Amino acid sequence: MSTDGMRQFAVYGKGGVGKSITSSNISAALSQMGYKVLQVGCDPKHDSIATICGRLLPTILEVVREKGLSQETIDSVIFKGFNGVLGCESGGPRPATGCAGKGVYTALEFLTRFKVAERNGANVVIYDVLGDVVCGGFSQPMRHGYAKEIYMVGNGESLTLWQVNNVMKAVVRLRAGGSNVAVGGIIDNMRGVPNEEKVVEAFGQAIGVPVIIHVPRDKTVQQAEFQGKTVIEAFPDSKQADVYRELARRIMANTKTYVPTTLTLPDIMNIVKGEMVAAG
Ligand code: ADP
Ligand code: MG
């Protein structure tokens, strides 16, 4: 996508870590700050924009398979949700056929080809990308310059930090191949493990990427989700909504990106164990 005057960033992390909830609350908060946001779900799970639009919606790949590729088809899968936030879902290939990551990339190519962000006047594009397997597939949005600035969603669990570390390895490898992708920060979407803030801070320090915010685990998230809404929409006066608004502000104010160092699994275990022991 052309980047003139348009802020584009990606939110990466393992499945279930909270990428879509976090992205959607950022989008909703940004819309109230006056930005025109397009949120692009890049996960075959296709529920990225469910709390922006109130329900699950058809995906780019499935509708293109059904109706053929045209600007009209693509426009039919760009949905308007809360406060004018635009959203779409890449979808994935039919199960057991083809590479899901490649499918995601194909969908992103359609968005570019038909200038979806530009024609809709979007000035912020958020890619919500599954980072479970950094096979060639899910690194495609980084590789092809859709997401030069990425934010990692993590928490204090070693498996999550291992997956963050895997995405960091992909960043390093892509940079060696000439890409200018880099990391804007870690979003600690807390899970409730002991001493979690310190664990994630220590991990961030070890990989050379700052933690941009610690997001508490909070019941307003599920309560809003059951209504098909973001916390920003359903509970605008809650503390959790304040956290998401602050996160949105920090991302927009951030001008720095970092080239990560990568760790081994024993390094990660030591960070998690060391901090937990320190917590008593
Ligand atoms: P991902 O997109 O990374 O697969 P989701 O954003 O769908 O993950 O989040 C998975 C689930 O975790 C959501 O259904 C939501 O209920 C829960 N969740 C995410 N963030 C929080 C939070 N801060 N507090 C409470 N629950 C959360
Ligand atoms: Mg998701």
Question: How is this fold's topology laid out?
Answer:
Blueprint: E1 7-13, H1 19-32, E2 37-42, H2 50-53, H3 60-67, H4 71-76, E3 79-80, E4 86-89, H5 100-113, H6 116-119, E5 124-130, H7 140-143, E6 149-154, H8 158-176, E7 182-189, H9 196-207, E8 211-215, H10 219-226, H11 231-234, H12 239-253, H13 265-279
Parallel strand pairs: 1-5, 1-6, 2-4, 2-5, 6-7, 7-8
Antiparallel strand pairs: 3-4
Helix pairs in contact: 1-12, 9-13
The chain binds adenosine-5'-diphosphate and magnesium ion.
Adenosine-5'-diphosphate (ADP) is lined by residues 13, 15-21, 189, 215, 217-218, 221-222, 225.
Strand and helix order: EHEHHHEEHHEHEHEHEHHHH
The percent range for strand residues is 15-25%
Number of domains: 1
Q: Residue share in helices?
A: 40-55%
User: Over all CA atoms, what is the radius of gyration?
Assistant: 18 Å
Q: Give the biggest sheet.
A: 8 strands, mixed
DSSP helical segment count: 13
- State the CATH topology: Rossmann fold
The low-confidence runs, each spanning 5 or more residues with pLDDT under 50, are none
Jot down its keywords:
280 residues; alpha/beta; Rossmann fold; 8-stranded mixed sheet; 13 helices; 45% helix; 16% strand; globular; binds adenosine-5'-diphosphate; binds magnesium ion
